[in-house]
Design a protein that fits this description.
- The chain is α+β, with helices and mostly antiparallel strands and about 475 residues long.
- About 25% of the residues lie in helices and about 25% in strands.
- It is built from 14 helices and 26 strands.
- The longest helix has 13 residues.
- It is globular and about 70 Å long.
- Uridine-diphosphate-2(N-acetylglucosaminyl) butyric acid binds next to helix 1, helix 5, helix 6 and helix 12.
């Protein structure tokens, strides 16, 4: 990622407006203010890596060691949790990825002070939400990152009101937030929808009984944060059991919350009147780790994936063993050694502890090289097969029928010009390119930069032939939308 001088001011294009709450004649009024963001704070509006591509030459096995970063999907709710307290929150093992910068911009646009560490303090962020002048998540930010909706619950709980843009369509499916809204209503919030925004208010949230119609990860997290500051007890049923939900509960409890049952489908929260600051280390990224596990298995490598939590990868590791991959684990690493032929195995994505939808695309790349036919069923999102079209361009044999993809394996792949459509689809194409004959040019790698920290450097350090090239174009000339996932 490029380093932008700190002393440059934000360009007016795209710099968000904020609003101050001012008391006048006994009434709270909103007064608009233009935020003095540094140039780097506004970088999200025109990503500097928009034109970057990866050039990947296939054929090398992945060897040696690779280190896993902190989990993006745990770091995002943890940063939103800072809204719940006036005291500073110190978060460690924060991945250096674009979505984290987006979340920082979002918090800054509300009036928070967010320090992202550099040098020795790299991967640490300190967030202070002492003065939140503007409890709003603007469309410009929400449209680039759906996880921005995670601020909804914390804002209503702490500020008594929130204005959050509806996220709209997404590359992988419809992804509504109706369950977040229904849950907040259950906690006593009044919700209005106007001009593409959700406006939620409540003098004080009160405990309630929430039964999720469908398991939702960020929905569980959003409402857990809201209920932590509600009056009385909340019971939430049919909750997501993902490790990221558990990590958030651990953090909230360090802040003074009273949460039990995170990691099971029923979570009980005794509301408290205030939460304080805390220091917390984010769990390792199980999806990044899993991506490297598959890459090592596919390239016939011998790779140790370090600094991860193997118990969060159980469904993936079991599936790979079924495919004939040799996997050994220690407390915090996975070693993949694969000299054998891969065997096809069917797969269905499920909520945790099932096989993660976020690993489906990468598994499809592996299935193209396995002996036999694999049927991959996507049960979480309705449109998460965009990578199949690009894999076809590299020589794969895949037929998509609704929520199923039929992958006929053992087809040689050849390098081609291909395009990323979303974060995990991009990872699948990188993996496929590592075994393709010749050179693959991967376009729109800004999708991968949203959630993988310097993936090209990590893979190069493990014998992968991959480099980033940027087109020499003025940054501001590029005005195409950034993908959403
Ligand atoms: N859903 C609803 N209504 C809601 C919320 C969800 O119908 O109010 C549906 C969704 O449309 C989907 C299903 O429920 O069909 C599950 O969606 P979920 O809410 O669990 O997804 P999410 O919380 O928006 C998180 C991850 C995703 C990951 C999914 C599923 C974060 C920031 N994002 O999204 O990660 O795919 O859970 O595990 O935690 C990624 O990292 O690439 C990514 C997309």
């Amino acid at each position: 990622m490029k380093i932008i001088p700190k002393n440059r001011q934000a360009g007016s294009a795209g710099a968000p407006m904020a609003a101050k709450l001012v008391k006048s004649a006994g009434e709270l009024k909103k007064v608009p203010v233009r935020l003095k963001l540094r140039f780097e704070d506004a970088a999200e509006y025109v990503p500097e890596n928009l034109m970057d591509k990866f050039v990947i030459r296939g054929g090398n096995p992945l060897l040696g060691n690779i280190r896993v970063s902190g989990a993006k999907n745990a770091a995002l709710p943890a940063m939103a949790a800072a809204i719940l307290t006036e005291e500073p929150l110190i978060l460690e093992n924060i991945p250096d990825v674009r979505d984290i910068q987006t979340e920082r911009n979002l918090l800054v646009s509300m009036g928070a002070e967010v320090e992202l560490g550099y040098g020795r303090a790299h991967h640490r962020t300190t967030i202070s939400c002492r003065d939140l002048a503007n409890p709003e998540a603007a469309y410009e930010l929400v449209k680039t990152m759906r996880a921005s909706t995670l601020v909804l619950g914390p804002l209503v709980a702490r500020m008594g009101r929130a204005r959050v843009s509806l996220p709209g369509g997404c590359a992988i499916g419809a992804r509504p937030i109706d369950l977040h809204i229904k849950g907040l209503e259950q906690l006593g919030a009044t919700i209005r929808q106007e001009h593409g925004y959700i406006e939620a208010s409540a003098e004080r949230l009160r405990g309630g009984h929430i039964v999720f119609d469908k398991i939702t990860v960020t929905g569980t997290e959003d409402l857990m944060m809201a209920a932590a500051l509600a009056d009385g007890e909340t019971v939430m049923e049919n909750c997501a059991r993902e490790p990221e939900v558990v990590d958030l509960a651990v953090l909230l409890n360090k802040m003074g919350a009273k949460i039990e049952g995170a990691g099971t489908s029923t979570i009980r929260i005794k509301g408290v009147s205030r939460l304080g600051g805390a220091r917390h280390r984010i769990i390792p990224d199980r999806i990044e780790a899993g991506t490297f596990v598959i890459a090592a298995a596919l390239t016939g490598g011998d790779l140790s994936i370090n600094n991860c939590e193997p118990r969060h990868l159980s469904a993936l590791l079991e599936k790979l063993q079924e495919c004939g991959v040799t996997v050994t684990t220690t407390r915090d690493s996975v070693r993949v050694k694969n000299g054998h032929r891969l065997k096809a195995a069917d797969l269905s994505t499920e909520e945790y502890p099932g096989f993660p939808t976020d690993m489906q695309a990468q598994y499809m790349a592996l299935a193209t090289q396995a002996e036999g036919t694999s049927i991959i069923t996507e049960n979480i999102f309705e449109n998460r097969f965009m990578h199949a079209q690009e894999l076809l361009r590299m020589g794969a044999n895949i037929k998509v029928e609704g929520s199923r993809a039929i992958v006929r394996g053992h087809t040689p792949l050849s390098g081609a010009a291909v395009q990323c459509s979303d974060l995990r689809a991009s990872a699948s194409l990188v993996i496929a390119a590592l075994v393709a004959e010749g050179e693959t040019i991967l376009d729109r790698v800004y999708h991968i930069d949203r959630g993988y920290e310097r993936i090209e450097e990590k893979l190069r350090g493990a014998n992968g032939q991959i480099r980033r090239i940027g087109e020499i174009l003025p940054r501001r000339a590029a005005q195409v939308p950034v993908g959403v996932a």
